[in-house]
Amino acid sequence: AAWRTQWEADHPLGWFEQRYAYGVKGKYFHWILAHNAIVIIDDTLFVHGGISPKYLGTTAEDINNRIRRELQNFSLLEGGMITDADGPLWYRGLAEGDEAELEEHVRSLLSQFGVKRIVVGHTPLIATVVPRFRGAVLAADVGLSKPFGGPPAYVVIEKGSASTVHRERKL
């Protein structure tokens, strides 16, 4: 009975189905491979977690290609970019790191990628989009998913100017 209780706690309803859907034969695997981990649109870099100092100098193309290779060959995951806490999927420094300590790093990233701003997710903050580094970084994870209960909020970039819509109001 104790083993079964632990098993069910570790493998809740939908656990196997979710893994299958994202696995090599699942319906989301090829969709994920067809999309980039980081994207530059006009003068904005979008990345799930952030680009840490460890990956400064790595091009967007190299990051995207490396993540695709790791997804296609799970033996590359250990020690890989996907599982690295400093990798672009997990790094939280741009959203919660000390701005004074990371200011030069952010300037270097903007220059390297030729962008005016970086939009990051992955780190739910105070239920609104938070500008950091004098607006050079927009921490856009508002905790919208049900477990976090955050309000609807998102980034809008029009004519090169960024703003946020929070609770249906443009700020």
Please provide a written account of the structure.
- The protein has 171 residues and is α/β, with parallel strands linked by helices.
- 32% of the residues lie in helices and 19% in strands.
- The chain contains 6 helices and 8 strands.
- It has helices spanning 2-10, 15-22, 29-33, 60-72, 93-96, 99-113, and strands at residues 38-41, 44-47, 117-120, 130-132, 137-139, 153-158, 161-166, 169-170.
- The chain has a 5-stranded mixed β-sheet. Strands 6-7-8 form a 3-stranded antiparallel β-sheet, with no helix packed on it.
- Strand 6 (153-158) and strand 7 form a beta hairpin.
- It is globular and about 55 Å long.
- The N and C termini lie far apart (54 Å).
- The model has no long low-confidence stretch (mean pLDDT 91).
Given helix and strand content, the structural type is alpha/beta
Oligomeric form: single chain
- What is the radius of gyration computed over CA atoms, rounded to a whole number of angstroms? 18 Å
Termini gap: 54 Å
Approximately how much beta-strand content do the residues carry? 15-25%
The DSSP helix count reads 6
Taking all residues together, what is the mean pLDDT? Answer: 91
Q: What is the number of beta strands? A: 8
Which residues form runs of ≥5 with pLDDT under 50?
A: none
Helicity range of the residues? 25-40%
Instruction: List the secondary-structure elements in sequence, H or E.
Output: HHHEEHHHEEEEEE
Q: Strand sequence of the main sheet, in spatial order?
A: 1-2-3-5-4
What overall geometry do the principal axes of the alpha carbons give? globular
Characterize the largest beta sheet: strand count, sense, and whether it forms a barrel.
5 strands, mixed
